[in-house]
Design a protein that fits this description.
The protein folds into three domains: 6-144 and 265-327, 3-Layer(bba) Sandwich (FAD/NAD(P)-binding domain), CATH 3.50.50.60; 153-262, FAD/NAD(P)-binding domain, CATH 3.50.50; 341-449, FAD/NAD-linked reductase, C-terminal dimerisation domain (Enolase-like, domain 1), CATH 3.30.390. It is built from 14 helices and 22 strands. The protein has helices at 15-26, 41-46, 48-67, 81-106, 159-162, 179-190, 210-222, 312-327, 356-362, 376-380, 409-421, 426-430, 442-445, 459-462; strands spanning 6-11, 31-34, 109-111, 115-119, 122-125, 132-139, 143-145, 172-175, 195-198, 226-228, 233-239, 242-247, 252-255, 258-260, 264-266, 299-301, 341-343, 349-353, 365-372, 386-393, 399-405, 449-450. Strand 12 and strand 13 (252-255) form a beta hairpin. The relative contact order is 0.12.
Length: 463
């Protein structure tokens, strides 16, 4: 029997922490977990799950409008925000219970309070004087929204508060054009709220393939979203029941809500990790090796708190790999290649593998892409476009990246991740039978290679 009270103490009951705690307990280990908010973490409580439900809710208006062309008729169509947000919160409550019972059934002891690290093998709970000892400590505290420093920053709401709104804002200004900002932009626009997006860069969704960024930006503008690039907010002032938002270009906006979607920071402040000898990065992230171990041999970290690939399935896989490494004697290093990613904008993005820009840094590549009108828009007349793209290594013919904008893009990208992970070539795609009529068939019927325009040289350039 170990001299420690627990074999494993987990701080943070999000997806990664819960997975690690459950698996270790099922191996017969003495496991405890501490969570100061609710079991389930960001994804379940105030992230991907409730956000995806809001996405579904925001899409029904356009779908019902399109249904007229398919013979459906209706009267007095209305939308009620309190009904939607109540039902979303009810589902969050249900999932919180599911996660709690998962830990309970596995025999994990639960502490619903803040815990901090006091040393390589000790943790202190908020309601106790004496520390708790553990052979291993796993930090899985996730991340939290970060806010810019500017006059009036206290008036910002974050994605967290969006799930608590009792009424829809009459209008909203969103600062930031990453995936969180763009998803909430699409949600509010779909529910009829005028949306203005402010971003200091030249295009939305930095880090994604440039063609995807351009396609989504064009589609959002077509839906009435005011995308303002190359500008920033300088101040926010309360103005009666609304807000006065000043921009760097001198413009003044008046809006009923201002949201900051300017990124998230790892939750390590006041956690005590530095005193325990754990190194942190510039943004507070926990620095770990390929096996999620910190520079303290008994302390590990998984999920967003490490700021590696900040996605729920990644945190779950990291938690699993941690248990295999530490408690099963089978060291498992994480592989972060070919992670499928979705952005639930309208239209939706699904992507896996390298963008064209990143691929050109290390490969000679061929590009295959197409834009077309989806069949469902032919009767409704909606000006909707689907975009698809393959990035292919010119030497090996291996498909390095697959990118899509359009309906069900996330579902298609998930399945496409399998052949890309296995090293499928463009010839493999070409030899696969198409499923007709479907959107996904375009990925196996793409034949025409795209060539970039030839630069104009000499005297013709001046003309």
């Amino acid at each position: 029997m170990s001299d420690y009270e627990y074999d494993l103490f987990v701080i943070g009951a999000g997806s990664g922490g819960v997975r690690a705690a459950r698996l270790a307990a099922q191996l017969g280990k003495r496991v405890a977990i501490a969570e100061e908010y609710r079991v389930g973490g960001t994804c379940v409580i105030r992230g991907c799950v409730p956000k995806k439900l809001l996405v579904y809710g925001s899409r029904y208006g356009a779908e019902l409008e399109d249904a007229k062309a398919y013979g459906w008729s209706y009267e007095d169509l209305q939308f009620d925000w309190p009904t939607l947000i109540h039902n979303v919160q009810r589902e969050v409550d249900r999932l919180n219970g599911v996660y709690t019972r998962t830990l309970e059934n596995a025999g994990v002891e639960r502490f619903l309070m803040r815990a901090t690290v006091e040393g390589p093998h000790s943790v202190r709970l908020a309601d106790r004087d004496a520390p708790i000892t553990a052979e291993y400590i796993l930090v899985a505290t996730g991340s939290a929204p970060s806010f810019p420093s500017l006059p009036g920053a206290e008036h910002f709401i974050s994605s967290n508060e969006c799930f608590q709104l009792t009424a829809l804002p009459e209008s909203i200004v969103i600062l930031g054009a990453g995936y969180i900002g763009m998803e909430f932009c699409s949600i509010f626009a779909g529910l009829g709220v005028p949306v203005t997006v402010i971003y200091r860069g030249d295009q939305i969704l930095r880090g994604f393939d440039d063609d995807l960024r351009d396609q989504v930006a064009e589609s959002l503008r077509d839906r009435g979203v005011d995308l303002r690039m190359d500008t920033n907010i300088t101040s926010i002032e309360k103005d009666g029941q609304s807000y006065r938002v000043a921009l760097t270009d001198g413009d003044i906006l008046h809006t009923s809500a201002v949201m900051a979607a300017t990124g998230r920071a790892p939750n390590t402040k006041g956690l005590g990790l530095e005193a325990a000898g754990v190194d942190l990065g510039d943004n507070g992230r926990v620095i770990v090796d390929a096996y999620s171990k910190t520079c303290a041999d008994s302390i590990y970290a998984v999920g967003d708190v490490t700021d590696r690939a900040n996605l729920t399935p990644v945190a779950i896989r990291e938690g699993t790999a941690f248990v295999e490494t530490v408690f099963e004697g089978a060291p498992k290093a994480m592989d972060y290649s070919f992670i499928p990613t979705a952005v639930f904008t309208e239209p939706e993005i699904g992507t896996v593998g390298l963008s064209e820009r990143d691929a050109r840094k290390t490969h000679e590549i061929h590009i295959y892409k197409t834009t077309f009108r989806p069949m469902r828009a032919t009767l409704s007349g909606r000006g909707e476009k689907v975009f698809m793209k393959l990035v292919v290594d010119a030497d090996s013919d291996r498909v390095l990246g697959l990118h899509m904008v359009g309906p069900d893009a996330a579902e298609i990208a998930q399945m496409a991740a399998i052949p890309l992970k296995l090293g499928a070539t463009k010839a493999d795609f070409d030899s696969t039978m198409a499923l007709h009529p479907s959107l996904a068939e375009e990925f196996v019927t793409l034949r025409q290679r795209w060539e970039p325009p030839t630069p104009i040289k000499g005297s013709d350039a001046a003309a």
